[in-house]
Amino acid sequence: MDFKKLMNSAIASGNTRLTFHVPEDWMQGRTTYGGLTGAMCLQTAQRLAGDRAIRSAQIAFVGPVSGDVICQAVVLREGKNTVFVNVRMTGSDGVAADSIFVFGARRESALNFANLSAPEVTEPKETESYFGDRPMRPAFTHHFNMRLVAGSRPISGAAEGDISLWMRHKDDALTPDAVSVLALADAPPPAALSMLSGPARISSMTWMAEFLTDDIQTDNGWFLARHIADTSRDGYSSQSMTLWNSRREPIMIGRQTIAVFG
Cα separation of 22 and 115, whole Å? Predict the structure, then answer.
């Protein structure tokens, strides 16, 4: 099922609750792809945000997500310019995810800068596919086009975990917005996975993302991502990420904690 159709199929119960059904083709092993989990929570939170834009997302992946899930939103605090919204996702096994979203109205400021230069890379049409013709790949990845511009593929024994990719939804009906970008940003495998030389299970634990603009635009749906494994110790990896649009304008930064079983 295409991303837009999936998100539009949500069943609403008032302004605070959405019920989603996750198809098998959006799974990552025994759980739903983490970017989709975040997107479902964000779409629910937006119902309580008024006309404020998303500024920050903090998501904890508590348990497996599959089948029918319920996202319940509650306002934690609302002021003149900002609102904090908690969304808890539950499924047949109990709590699946918990999240806090911060929405804020745009306001005038004397500060206007971004020290986040994009790497020099080839354009998407000049870049080879990230997965190539590999038959073994997570089901959800078939919903994205990903092209590797720097770094190494998973389980290649690379010296460092630092990957850059062009990415886009395959769903041509999409107009980029905060929900679709949050779903896209988590698509690459963890950067540390490229440093392994043998198969290993991984599991995202937490994800923090900051939206740097409320004007989300790009050409032909393409966004440039760089994911860097900053540390990996005691079975946990911490990585940073940056997302730019096709004009190399920064859209999002984030951090993620990942459990590595191997």
Answer: 38
